[in-house]
Specification:
By secondary structure, this protein is α/β, with parallel strands linked by helices. The protein is built from twelve helices and nine strands. Helix 10 runs antiparallel to helix 11 and helix 11 packs across helix 12. The chain is globular, with a radius of gyration of 21 Å.
């Protein structure tokens, strides 16, 4: 069942809004007479449930490990009878895209709920949280400022950030009913999602390729320049990565936009031979024209991200 990604600045009230959603969903499930609704459960995942401290966001490697922990927890929780609320920072669009792909791979809808508390108000709340030892605690000022600077606001025009619901600071509650209808369905009809071929599960791994059936392998390529496009497109993406590395010497864990897709680089160094090996593997898997030309770029980006995890 659905995945709800909570997004917002640090100390914006994401957990407060998440708890409102949890209470609403649980009440809705308890009052339901339909079996498809009454059997649902709600899982709330955030830094506290994962045992993560605010200091993990100080270094790129520890932050990437924290995102991996959230991703793994969400992946384990996603199921036909579970509503998953991922209440992390979720401020990187590449990470939100990765979560979107995971939900789509298991044929469940997803949405983003953005807590739109202004920066100045978040800073005020964070200072109070740091001063109040009875609370969970805020973010150290240097981490807070850095997270604000790096925040990538959701965009409802992109497929991985839609549907997008924004909750303003003065709003009494999130738009519960609209979120329920968008994810659970209306009038007894379950919301159904068809996975893209590029995000279908092969065993326990999500690959950036399509399933290739025997009859398709027997067909000659309809586009004579397919192999040329496969080679050119994948090489241009590698060039974008190496170009980023030259401009950010000593930096790891960056994000590179390729069209509508985002490459999320690993927290450690990745060499040119490693990139070339991944490229050769992708070309080998798809050289029998298993992809339309329009999907080569998106699928190679997805394949790179799956190898970088």
């Amino acid at each position: 069942m659905p995945l709800i990604l909570i997004s917002g600045y640090p100390s914006s009230g994401k957990t407060y809004r998440s708890n409102q959603l949890v209470d609403f969903f649980n009440a809705k499930i308890k009052a339901a007479t339909e079996s498809r609704i009454s059997r649902l459960t709600v899982v709330h995942i955030n830094d506290q449930t994962l045992g993560l401290s605010r200091d993990v966001y100080r270094e790129a490697r520890s932050e990437k490990d924290a995102r991996a922990a959230e991703y793994s927890a969400v992946k384990r929780a996603l199921g036909r009878d579970t509503i998953v609320i991922a209440d992390g920072l979720n401020y990187i669009k590449g990470f939100r895209y990765q979560m979107y792909c995971e939900a789509k791979a298991v044929q469940t809808p997803s949405c983003v709920v953005h807590v739109g508390t202004p920066h100045e108000k978040c800073k005020e709340i964070n200072v109070r949280s740091l001063e109040n030892e009875s609370q969970d605690g805020g973010y150290p000022s240097d981490i807070f400022d850095n997270l604000i600077f790096r925040f990538e606001e959701p965009n409802g025009m992109t497929r991985w950030d839609s549907p997008l619901f924004t909750v303003l600071f003065d709003d009494a509650a999130p738009p519960h009913d609209e979120i329920w209808d968008a994810l659970i369905g209306v009038g007894g009809e379950t919301k159904k999602v068809k996975p893209n071929q590029a995000t279908m599960m092969v065993g326990h791994q999500t690959w950036g390729i399509e399933f290739v059936t025997a009859d398709r392998l027997q067909k000659p390529a309809a586009e004579s320049d397919y192999l040329y496009e496969l080679d050119k497109t994948t090489q241009s993406i590698l060039n974008a990565i190496t170009g980023w590395q030259k401009d950010h010497v000593g930096e790891f864990g960056g994000q590179i936009a390729i069209g509508d897709q985002v490459i999320e680089l690993p927290a450690g160094p990745v060499s040119l031979p490693q990139l070339q090996r991944i490229r050769r593997q992708f070309i080998s898997l798809n050289r029998q024209h298993s992809l339309p030309k329009s999907r080569i770029s998106d699928s190679f980006v997805e394949y790179l991200n799956s190898n970088f995890e």
